[in-house]
Records
---
Amino acid sequence: MRIRFTVNGKLRSYSGSGMKRLLDVLREDLSLPGTKEGCGEGECGACTVLLDGQAVVSCLVPVAQVAGRRVKTVESLGRPDRLGPLQEAFLAEGAAQCGICTPGMLMTASAYVQRGGRADDGAIRRELAGNLCRCTGYQHIVSAVQKAARRGTARRTRRRA
Amino acid sequence: MRGDAEAASILRPRTPAEAVRLFEKHRNALPIAGGTDLMVAWNAGGLAGRTFLDVSLLRAWARIRQARGVLAIGSLATHTDLLRHPLVRRRFPLLAEACATVGGVQIQNRGTIGGNVANASPAGDTFPPLAVYEASVVVVSAGGRREIPFLEFFTGPKRTCMASGELVEAVLIPLPARPPKRTVFRKVGTRAAQAISKTVAAGLLWLRRDGTVEELRFALGSMAPTVRRLRSAEACVKGRRLTPDVVREAVALVAKDVSPIDDVRSTAEYRLAVSRNLLFRFLSEPR
């Protein structure tokens, strides 16, 4: 089965079984190892990517279902020499420790910030409830997302002005 | 570990007609939509060698619309679609609340109402709301279409009355003539996200002007092989005022309609105690 889809703005193509997990196609076939595998059963959120702008766990997506759609991975958020605002906020707040949950946290948070999510503690915690972190506790992560959400709001306000 | 992807095949029909035709031909195919449950089994290697029937391209089945006093929810509507839908939020708030407690956002974005219903988990969080709203399930096959009352749809844990070759097309909910006086949805689990319920409850209560009960509907999930309405308690309060004695009498009847078990998530005793408390609190709520 030949499948074409957009990954981080570029048209990519994959040939193979349509039942291969999107997670494995990204890591093995498209050389994008930023997306991590945690539990492999949809409980931990480590492998979260955006599918047409929505957060999904890539371990539960057969690649056939992404044909013609847009996928965004953590690699889309910035580069080591030019981090995105969400990555900067995570760094500034010390929101990462071992790092396995971080790409998933960033992607779930990016969908939230993208759609104009507020810097509200409770709303952010609800949004991130499907992402587990076993190192830092969640406070630093929530603070980082709040920071990015405030920046997002400020940017939108400036654009409107 | 996981199913051998190379040996698997996945059929991708583009129209409902093509989907039922393919299913007629490939009777052993496993329908897949959001894959939030099926892919877990696939990843664990449990479905090796199977053919999958991917229904996710059937756009006609993704709509939510109101028609002739009924809310018609296409089987591909996701939990996110439902919890954001203005009509669902306004008229069927218990369903919106249930959808917000299923998994985390990643699961809500992918999991569909049709998959949820067809999967028939005894712990399905949307089932108590659908049971009290007296929904029905529409299934289609190459042979035609039939509508099944919600409580008759489930025949056991992970079992439904669907015949081979049938697919869930929609869930229908009649719009209530007037809004209930009181509503409740409550999921009891170990973690806010992802947790599978120990018990899950939904209730609707209509009161007459004189304070007597016009109708009570109360349903519990995770308390029996399938979702259950508390028919005995419902009948007990009908036409009566909710005095402390009447409430106690109704609460004592909870066990008549459920059969909770001990399992990894909880004990039968705990489940029953919590369920009784949920009904007690709902009926005792000050007006």
---
Amino acid sequence: MKAKVYVSLKPGILDPQGKAIQHSVELLGFDGIADVRQGKYFEISLADNAGQEEARESVSRMAREVLSNPIIEDYRVEIEA
Amino acid sequence: MKFGVIVFPGSNCDHDAYHVISKQVGQPVDFIWHRETNLNSYDALIIPGGFSYGDYLRAGALARFSPVMESVKKFAATGRFVLGICNGFQILCEAGLLPGALIRNRDLHFICEHIFVRVETSDTPFTNEMERGAVLRLPIAHAEGNYVCDDATLETLQREDRIVVRYCDRDGEITSAANPNGARDNIAGICSRERNVLGLMPHPERACEDLLGSSDGRDIFRSLAATLAAVA
């Protein structure tokens, strides 16, 4: 079983890296880009015997307490069988 | 009075802090490896600058889980003094000992230069030997010093007089041009509600000798030493 965790800056938190990336892709000729936000992505392999709900619960706790800083970031958890 | 300087893998301002306490403040000081959990013999702790755990995940995020940090929380809860400098400030925020967070500088650069900060309150154990409004010239050296917090937290910090230093120009004016990293409200340092925990982005320990370009940082250690002398 695999868990995927997406961590992104909360709306309203300045993302200077996203701005710099946006500038770079615009220099490449891509236009029509309204905004770029950079985030983090984690893949966590879990023992297969864990139940899906149990896994979601423990990975959500990981995301909340370690992988994200709730003051500045949101997270989303996906569980893949 | 006894000081401790906590050392994480990747701390690199630990020796500067040790030097200032032993040579300038003239008090006993130990290095404390991050696996230590007994802090009973100390009166004040310094969490130094550097790149604990390589700044992996987020600056300060992994140091929070070092064994010593549970003891630091208990230490702070007894009213004893904790000074977090630069990465130390980031660790204190991640550990929940100070509110808010420090994110990437507005202009993305790692900034290493001398800046000015204005002392916003002398009602802390770290600034009580200074006048409110005093201007200090101190070095900064960070990529993640952009202080953020929500409106309610900012209002609380202001109401409780917990914004200790703010970025200013050489005349003490708080301007956006004098804000090196985009920090909210030009915040360079804040203290806890109980006032015994201070987080600072500038490095006072690197500014305690004229030879180093500024000795303004001494006032912070002088204040802390005076506080400790009064308590003892």
